[in-house]
């Protein structure tokens, strides 16, 4: 999809969690560093490869889809154009369904 056009680095961030969380950032893209960071709690054999590939694709999409802005000037990170691009991922529906079905495991981070 990106045809080897991106020169991004990928690394881990965060600590493995114990206890409950209401929200966890699974990944992030840092434009100034051209760096994708994936949360360490996902470095487990229970996390399927297709989901990790989707997560990296999602962060890569941030590097190519221009940000959108609301009328008030707020940044919209996951606007219409971004979502359209994200849905090009071949296993998009499967990955999103897996995330929804396993959100408690992801939030627990163990």
Describe this entry's structure for a reader.
- The chain is of the alpha+beta class and 110 residues long.
- It is built from four helices and five strands, in the order βββαββααα.
- It has a three-stranded mixed sheet with strand order 1-3-2, covered by helices on one side.
- It is globular and about 40 Å long.
- The N and C termini lie far apart (32 Å).
- The model has no long low-confidence stretch (mean pLDDT 88).
Tag the structure with descriptive keywords.
4 helices, three-stranded mixed beta sheet, 5 strands, alpha+beta, SprT-like domain-containing protein
Summarize the structure.
Helices cover 35% and strands 16% of the residues. The protein is of the alpha+beta class. It has one domain (9-108): Zincin-like (2-Layer Sandwich), CATH 3.30.2010.
Radius of gyration: 15 Å
- Mean residue pLDDT: 88
Compute the separation of the termini in Å. 32 Å
CATH topology, by name, is Zincin-like
> Percentage of helical residues?
25-40%
- Specify the overall morphology: globular
Percentage beta strand: 15-25%
Number of helices: 4
Oligomer: single chain
Q: Briefly note the structural class of the backbone.
A: alpha+beta
Sheet with most strands: strand arrangement: 1-3-2
Contiguous low-pLDDT stretches (5 residues minimum) are: none
Question: What characterizes the major β-sheet?
Answer: 3 strands, mixed
List the helices and strands in order: EEEHEEHHH
Number of beta strands: 5
What count of domains describes the coordinates? 1
Name of the CATH class: Alpha Beta
User: From the coordinates shown, what is the CATH architecture?
Assistant: 2-Layer Sandwich
